């Protein structure tokens, strides 16, 4: 089971390739958060103890760093831990996004916590299925399709309908299912960093001679 889990992690490594697109996504997220804070459309408890102010400073500095990274990309992309600014930014956004979205949709704190638990459970189930996939392909293949694609279909249906009907309940359901799909990328997002763990995964499961660097891999893949 341990080896199967590591193989599932390797499959994530082959997908999480860091490039300019990821840098742009991180900048977009930071910009949206900054606008949200400035518009004061966030939960009131974030204004206590100057949390909102600290978040505003953090995201402003982070956005500036991301822009600097983009301008000096040729030099920046050679560092071993390239992408570390994006990793910090995305993980903090993962923590505060449920409260931002929940506040905008009028979702209570209790329902936000329940939704977060459901999202975490979804990720755990997806990792278990991915780990079992290699050994029990015939059974798990159909189950995983129903779970993964089913959640994706619900997302594509509920968000547009909720938006046009101005229905917060459908919008909330769509946001939850969208977050479920997003966990498959953003929870293991640290694997884009050229760490020893990543290198060992590539050495164990990857083709012989594959470059360990995430940046080199993205350039090679794009060619």
From TrEMBL:
Membrane spanning stretches: 21-38, 50-69, 81-101, 113-134, 146-165, 171-193
Organism: Ligilactobacillus murinus
Record keywords: Membrane, Transmembrane, Transmembrane helix
The keyword Transmembrane belongs to this UniProt entry's keyword annotation: yes
Top-level taxon of the source organism: Bacteria
Keyword Transmembrane: yes
Stated name of the protein: Uncharacterized protein
């Amino acid at each position: 089971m341990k080896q199967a889990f590591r193989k599932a992690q390797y499959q994530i490594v082959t997908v999480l390739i860091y490039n300019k697109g990821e840098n742009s996504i991180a900048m977009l997220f930071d910009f949206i958060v900054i606008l949200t804070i400035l518009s004061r459309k966030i939960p009131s408890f974030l204004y206590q103890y100057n949390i909102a102010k600290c978040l505003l400073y953090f995201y402003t500095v982070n956005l500036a760093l991301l822009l600097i990274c983009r301008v000096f990309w040729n030099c920046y992309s050679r560092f071993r831990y390239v992408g570390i600014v994006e990793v910090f930014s995305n993980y903090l956004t993962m923590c505060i996004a449920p409260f931002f979205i929940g506040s905008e949709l009028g979702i209570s704190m209790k329902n936000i916590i329940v939704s977060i638990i459901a999202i975490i459970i979804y990720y755990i189930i997806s990792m278990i299925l991915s780990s079992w996939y290699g050994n029990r392909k015939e059974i798990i293949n159909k189950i995983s399709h129903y779970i993964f694609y089913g959640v994706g279909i619900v997302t594509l249906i509920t968000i547009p309908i909720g938006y046009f009907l101005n229905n917060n309940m459908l919008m909330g359901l769509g946001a939850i299912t969208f977050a479920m799909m997003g966990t498959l990328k953003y929870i293991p997002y640290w694997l884009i960093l050229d760490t020893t763990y990543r290198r060992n995964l590539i050495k164990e499961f990857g083709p012989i001679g594959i470059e360990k660097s995430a940046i080199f891999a993205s350039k090679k893949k794009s060619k």
